[in-house]
Amino acid sequence: MIIDIHTHSVMFHDPAQRAISRWTSPEELIGMWDAAGIDKGVILPMVHHELTTIVQPTENVLDIAAKYPDRVIPFCNLDPRHYYNNDKVDFTPVLEHYKGLGCKGVGEMCANLWWDDDRVLNMLGDIEKVGLPMLFHVASHDRGMYGLVDQIGLPKLEKVLQMFPKLQLIGHSMAFWSAIDGGVTEDDWMGYPKGPVQEGGRLGELLSTYDNLWADISAGSGHNALSRDPEFGYSFMEQFQDRVLFGTDICVPDQELPQGPYLKQAVEQGKISREAYEKITHVNAEKLLGL
Question: pTM here?
């Protein structure tokens, strides 16, 4: 069993929309999963204007899940600026509504606001109250990137982990995964650092300290972090096997998906245990999402 915690797909009713932004169709996504041996996975709605010219509501993902109920796990998504940019809005009714329709989490959270913006904190409190996990992208304030804004070392994320101890947060992005390295710098923390990983990375510290943080290995960011220094990556997966989640971040057709072969080779060569492999590929997702 392999569960993909992170994909994107849009159901287009007008084929001309594909010329605006090229996301996978549901049929293309299922075909890519089949080719990669992935049994099912999460589709993340794209509601934030910072991310794409195509804005995708939760309802579109729910329509896809209704068409492929045995394959698609729907997430819902909201923007902290919804409802007139008000930091006192109660998001719980709409979150409860989506949860009742089968949504298993919130995300991908890509709003380009500081983690400790009052509007963000308000929404996080409501997500915690409803009991859904949230998958997020981290950005920097000066790099023109979508995602919740932090600084090197992820101090704002740590503040949120402390404020909302029951909110399960799933981390993703270059800024998140570069923190695996104790030697990361201002110049490379928003990119794909290469070479040996130095001990003392903030990501390991945060995972060791806060049991409500999870690590999504999808995209180039997750794969680069675990493969740039293979022995360190194997050790990291073994150490945090209860909090690492398999993902691909499928966005476009014919996208390379190195995460599955990398994990398969690691377990076959004895670099990680079978127990760690099973947890990362599906057991952790089943536990976190209540599958």
Answer: 0.96
